[in-house]
């Protein structure tokens, strides 16, 4: 399923969300310009579990943050930025700009660490904003369970756009991550870091708890 939009409009301008979108896109264009040097860039700035847990040091720990802004290919960044664009503005509106920055980074850290502790010996760098964005999704399902998500759903060879409650759309998304995540525990090779998604989602869910009853009058739907 691919989300197209939600029916909740934020009352404030999502400045931080715009900045995050911009940084990710700029970094991606820089990656494209590197050509054959891209692999070395990812090795240096991607979050490698072995380096974080065994080598340590400031440079290794900083890759936890730098890895959140690096993407492997066009489809990778497109999917992440689409989810960020649709869901992050409402979370930023609900918890505030500064708190949202902290929230986003903490969710990204939780994502890297959960993936890392299950594959400490892995020397494959992890990159992508999906761990932090998963935190946004965790907060969204808690704070806006009745919001409607316009999703593109495949039916055989056809695609159909239909509205789903966010709790259904994101619930299915999380179940998918969980099932595949359990099957990849301990894997050292590349691929999708499903456990990072789970870690970010749970972190976002927990961090959003204090905001459940805050600013309810700021929500409204577009019919």
UniProtKB/TrEMBL annotation:
Domain Peptidase S54 rhomboid: residue ranges: 61-212
Membrane topology: Multi-pass membrane protein
Pfam families given in the database record: Rhomboid
TM region positions: 12-30, 68-88, 100-120, 126-145, 157-179, 191-211
Compartments in which it is found: Membrane
Keywords: Membrane, Transmembrane, Transmembrane helix
Main location: membrane
Record SUPFAM superfamilies: Rhomboid-like
An annotated GO cellular component: membrane
Source taxon at top rank: Bacteria
A GO term, aspect molecular function: serine-type endopeptidase activity
Protein's UniProt name: Peptidase S54 rhomboid domain-containing protein
Organism: candidate division TA06 bacterium DG_78
Lineage summary: Bacteria, Bacteria division TA06
